[in-house]
Amino acid sequence: MKIIEIETADKVTLYGCLYGEKYKNTCVIITNGTCGNVFENKFLRVVGEKLEQNNISFIYAHNRGAFHRIDTKTADNNPIGNTYDLFDKCVLDLQAYIDWAKAQGYIHIILGGHSYGANKVVYYLSNHQNEKIDKYILISPTDTSKFKDHEEKSAAKLMPLALEYKRANKLNNILPIPFDNYNFYTAKAFLDFVGNKHAKNLPIYSQNGNWNQLKRINQVGLFIMGEKDGFAFNNAANHLQTINQNSKNKNNKIRIINDCGHTFADKEEELANEILTFIQTC
């Protein structure tokens, strides 16, 4: 594995993890979800190793919502990370990785995302229909308007604080209470996370969004998640079938990995094999 530096159009430096550097036919780019990163998301390391063993390049593409905070090169000298993440910036992040892959001479490019990263991939592809992307992969895709119970309670507690910060012109200040006892947000990033309409592109359970973005994607996709993923509310098959029913291309592949949750603990190899099969046969 090799660390690569990618610069976005707005002069933010991102760090990707490249597997299979010497293979120039197919490049799979998968971006992280909320706070996701190469250290905590073992399943994507396993995917990278599996693809490299089969002569396929893989980039774990950290977007600017990776980790909690990253002090990296930016035009305004401000940090990035999930604490500061604004959904719409994902277009710049994904374009930077795609441009890098094209510059390297890859013949085929496959774009994917995990969790919140899946929503970012849907948003990007719906607005870049002429970009040369062969297929796409949604791993553990979520309805961003439908939180689990404890997350809904946390969001409700944070909302008055965020609005108070907004009225006080303190949107860039970090809220004193973490969302779900884990993610610290600035007031601006929190309001974007719960309210950005562009991110409400997989409304499986909620009415706060629509399927218009997914209906603009021409490519065939792989929709895959763990049987016990909490964001599927005990019915992963229905969760993914609903996404498929509302997509433009009805040749998508649906796969459920048994006995695992949102990050495929102890089932990483099965996930990697499903992704490999999709790349090689579809």
If you had to describe this structure to a student in words, what would you say it looks like?
This protein is of the alpha/beta class and about 280 residues long. It folds into 2 domains: about 1-145 and about 200-280, Rossmann fold (3-Layer(aba) Sandwich); about 150-195, no CATH class. Helix content is about 30%, strand content about 15%. It has 7 helices and 8 strands; from the N terminus they run βββαβαβαβααβαβα. The protein has helices at about 40-55, 90-105, 115-125, 150-165, 185-195, 235-245, 270-280, and strands spanning about 1-5, 15-20, 25-30, 55-60, 110-115, 135-140, 220-225, 255. Strands 1-2-4-3-5-6-7-8 form an 8-stranded mixed sheet, with helices on both faces. The chain is globular.
Based on the structure given, which CATH architecture of the largest domain is correct? 3-Layer(aba) Sandwich
The share of residues in helices is 25-40%
Number of strands: 8
| Mean pLDDT score | 97
Record the strand order, biggest sheet. 1-2-4-3-5-6-7-8
Structural class: alpha/beta
CATH superfamily of the largest domain: Alpha/Beta hydrolase fold, catalytic domain
Low-confidence stretches: none
- The proportion of residues in beta strands is 15-25%
- Major sheet: 8 strands, mixed
Distance between the termini: 26 Å
CATH fold annotation of the largest domain: Rossmann fold
Radius of gyration, Cα only, in angstroms?
Answer: 18 Å
- Tally of structural domains: 2
- Dominant shape: globular
Order of helices and strands: EEEHEHEHEHHEHEH
Reading off the top of the CATH hierarchy, the class of the largest domain is best stated as Alpha Beta
| Number of helical regions | 7
